[in-house]
Amino acid sequence: MKKVIQEFLDGKKVAIAGASNKDDNFGKSLMKEFVKLGYTVYPVNPRCDEVDGTPCLATVKDLPAEVENLILVVPPSLTDEIVDQSVGTSIRRVWMHRSLGRGAVSEDAIEVCRKHGIEVVHGFCPMMFYGKGMHKFHLWIRETFGKVPAEYRA
């Protein structure tokens, strides 16, 4: 596993942009998984006051200074906006979630991150690297068929 992924997973505080109270919201599911794993999770969504009892922040600029990791579970157009907001904050690593389709991945946002020294992981679900069961299996399939880019292989 590459250093950026390991550093991301080692940080026990993470913001998740796109989490909401909808039962079918993947950001909410991801938030629950990270809480189970012992993380302090900060949901970011300007349209929610809280997610499962956790206060929701309107923007990444509202995050505490010790939060360095941000997972994006939003459409690419919002990824661009949120990454722009992240520049100059404590965010050091951004994970652009993707399972099927484009997910949160934005080439423009990737370039902004790189330009400003923010490390980026894109095109995967974080649970593929930390999770169990089906998530781990998804990573194994991608590795087996050469679908894990060299930049993320150990």
Q: How are the SSEs placed, and which strands pair?
A:
Blueprint: H1 3-10, E1 13-17, H2 26-36, E2 40-44, E3 50-51, E4 54-55, E5 69-72, H3 76-86, E6 93-97, H4 107-115, E7 119-124, H5 127-130, H6 134-144
Helix pairs in contact: 3-4
Give short descriptive properties of this protein.
five-stranded parallel sheet; globular; Rossmann fold; 154 residues; two-stranded antiparallel sheet; alpha/beta
CATH topology: Rossmann fold
**How many structurally independent domains?**
1
CATH class: Alpha Beta
On the 0 to 100 scale, the average pLDDT is: 86
SSE order, one letter for each helix or strand: HEHEEEEHEHEHH
Q: Low-confidence parts lasting 5 or more residues at pLDDT below 50?
A: none
CATH architecture heading = 3-Layer(aba) Sandwich
Radius of gyration: 14 Å
**General form:** globular
Say which CATH homologous superfamily is assigned.
NAD(P)-binding Rossmann-like Domain
Computed structural class: alpha/beta
Percentage of residues assigned to helices: 25-40%
Strand arrangement, major sheet: 2-1-5-6-7
Biggest sheet, in brief?
5 strands, parallel
Assembly annotation: single chain
N- to C-terminal separation?
Answer: 4 Å
User: Could you tell me the number of beta strands?
Assistant: 7
β-strand percent reads 15-25%
Q: Treating each run of at least 4 consecutive H or I residues as one helix, how many helices?
A: 6
